[in-house]
């Protein structure tokens, strides 16, 4: 199974701290974030990676190469300009010919990814599975609503006063046909555009609820939080 990591973003929220490097190459304990993410997945048996890159892509390709140094296989899908999370995945279509694990390249979640894949396979006909976790203020990120069988029924935009709820943790298992819902060459967001479109077209999406906390390292506060978490190990 291939793992797609969406690592082409501009990193505008954390540029004040690291203006000279792509977001996924920000160091933690002397190693770039992306190396920590690949190591986490490789320990669980994932060894084939597609890195979707754009902004300062040469820094990523020069550091990781073909992945042999890390004991994995790495290929690259390099967008001519950042295309958003959905557009980047669509641009990587030549590699997306079977069920795949997809991760945002700026979030860290220490969970059982094989269990996520197994859960998806337990739902024949599902187009995708989205990992979700409960937070104290779901309105800050946008809420994911599930029915009694954990099928996703709605996505709510950011809003105040929501309280506890489930949010998207930036980890997905997708069937290849979801690319049919993403226009080629366009800047598209998975979260804001593709997922709602899938629901409108009666495609089945399921939520895999995890107890672990995910960290968005793309902000100064998130960077500090993840640094403390990794240093504590």
Shape: globular
Instruction: Give the strand line-up of the largest sheet.
Output: 5-4-1-6-11-8-12
Number of domains: 1
Main CATH class: Alpha Beta
The arrangement of helices and strands along the chain is EEEHEHEHEEHEEEEHEEH
Bin the helical content: 10-25%
Strand content: 25-35%
Largest beta-sheet details:
7 strands, mixed
CATH topology: Spore Coat Polysaccharide Biosynthesis Protein SpsA, Chain A
Rg, rounded, reads: 17 Å
What is the tally of helical segments? 6
Characterization of the model:
With 233 residues, this protein is α/β, with parallel strands linked by helices. Helices cover 25% and strands 27% of the residues. It has a single domain, classed as Spore Coat Polysaccharide Biosynthesis Protein SpsA, Chain A, CATH 3.90.550. The radius of gyration is 17 Å and the shape is globular.
Short description:
The protein is 25% helix and 27% strand. By secondary structure, it is of the alpha/beta class. β4, α2 and β5 form a beta-alpha-beta unit.
Describe how the helices and strands are arranged:
Blueprint: E1 2-6, E2 27-28, E3 31-32, H1 33-42, E4 48-53, H2 57-64, E5 73-78, H3 84-91, E6 100-104, E7 107-108, H4 113-121, E8 128-135, E9 143-146, E10 152-156, E11 165-174, H5 190-200, E12 205-210, E13 215-216, H6 220-231
Parallel strand pairs: 1-4, 1-6, 4-5, 8-12
Antiparallel strand pairs: 2-3, 6-11, 7-13, 8-11, 9-10
């Amino acid at each position: 199974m291939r793992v797609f990591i969406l690592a082409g973003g501009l990193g505008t929220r954390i540029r004040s701290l690291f203006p000279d490097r792509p977001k996924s190459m920000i160091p933690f304990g002397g190693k770039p974030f992306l190396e920590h993410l690949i190591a986490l997945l490789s320990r669980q048996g994932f060894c084939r990676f597609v890195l979707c890159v754009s902004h300062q892509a040469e820094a990523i390709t020069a550091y990781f190469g073909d992945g042999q140094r890390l004991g994995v296989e790495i290929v690259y899908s390099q967008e001519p300009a950042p295309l958003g999370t959905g557009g980047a995945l669509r641009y990587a279509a030549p590699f997306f010919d079977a069920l795949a694990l997809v991760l945002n390249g700026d979030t860290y979640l220490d969970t059982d990814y094989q269990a996520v894949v197994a859960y998806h396979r337990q739902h024949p006909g599902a187009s995708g599975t989205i990992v979700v976790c409960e937070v104290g203020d779901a309105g800050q990120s946008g809420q994911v609503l599930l029915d009694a069988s954990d099928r996703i029924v709605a996505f709510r935009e950011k809003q105040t006063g929501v309280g506890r709820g489930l949010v998207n943790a930036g980890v997905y298992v997708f069937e290849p046909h979801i690319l049919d819902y993403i226009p080629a060459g366009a800047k598209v967001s998975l979260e804001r555009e593709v997922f709602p479109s899938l629901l409108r077209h009666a495609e089945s999406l399921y939520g895999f609820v995890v107890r672990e906390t995910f960290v968005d390292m793309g902000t100064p506060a998130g960077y500090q939080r993840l640094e403390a978490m990794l240093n504590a190990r």
